Amino acid sequence: MSPTPIVSTYSMWSLFRNCRKAVDWRYLQQLVPLEHDRNLHFGSLIHECLQAWHERRDLAEVLALIDKLCPKRLYDEGQRRDWHNATAMMKAYTARYAVEEFEVVALEKTFQGPIVNPATSAASRSFVLAGKVDGIVRVGDDYFLLEHKTASQLDADYLERLWTDFQITIYAYYVEQTMGITITGILYNILVKARLQQSKGETEEEYEARRAELLAKSKTGKTTAKRKLPETDEEFQERLAEKYTDPAMFHRETLYLSRDRFDILRSELWELTKAFLDARRRGVFYQNTGFCFNFHRPCAYFALCRSNGNPNVIENFYQRVEPNEELRVLPNDPTETAF
Ligand code: SF4
Fold this sequence. Notes:
The protein has helices at residues 10-18, 20-28, 38-56, 59-69, 77-96, 156-161, 166-179, 204-217, 233-243, 259-282, 302-306, 311-317, and strands spanning 6-8, 31-33, 103-116, 123-139, 142-151, 183-192, 250-256, 318-320. It is α/β, with parallel strands linked by helices. The chain folds into two domains: 6-194 and 244-332, Lambda Exonuclease, Chain A; 196-240, no CATH class. Bound molecules: iron/sulfur cluster (SF4).
């Protein structure tokens, strides 16, 4: 009996292409950092909000969801920042898109299918590909994948780079196979994060230092300076709401799919499976140090690589987590169709 194929995701293949060592840490040694990346927390929070909104279009429910997902906001600064930003963002988003030009067909749709050798059409016995798309929508007779993105900055470069989003293109192929529909393109739903900070006000010492400086410059020996107080939650929400009235904070971009790209990406995926099996057989997952700071911050495994996998570093900064946790829903999802 042949072994059950490994359920792989495009995230794994993309990581393998970028740095094989990172795949070894994450997928073979099953390590993830204990400290969560705050940008990822905000991104998944907004994804959940958008799913709830597009499902039932109930703003009160969305705001309650944000409260629930930021339970430590009263004392955790990161959560408070996410709560403020998400609350203002979703209030503005729901007002901006009160009426949609598309009809929602499915949300958070999962799929699973074979990885096929393009030369022989034989399916890989080692891997299947599984994934999840944010949504499938219909505009007239055309179906589009709906893809949510939270961006810190939206410019021409950002939009240009969407073309390189291979994951969604290959997912479109699998959704077509699973659901028996033709996907015309991708509708990117981009929400820009406000970069505002809630003002903390001045400490007594800071105020005294500023006051002394003003007095030294004053010809009358007096100053009307008052201590700057922390910005209240209401004041900060007002400032954020004002920011989100800027139309540039939300953007929809449609990309039409080319059938040729499906073929290129399917054969690349096949090549990646071959390279992975070879690396695993030989036990060689080399480092690509050119990728360590790719996202303008160190890779999640930087501490591990720098210490050559020191067990103390593993024990103190990482935990073991099964791969593909984002797809845990798959085996029990009764709506799932394997093909
Ligand atoms: S730190 Fe650099 S070499 Fe190590 S896994 Fe990350 S990207 Fe690869």
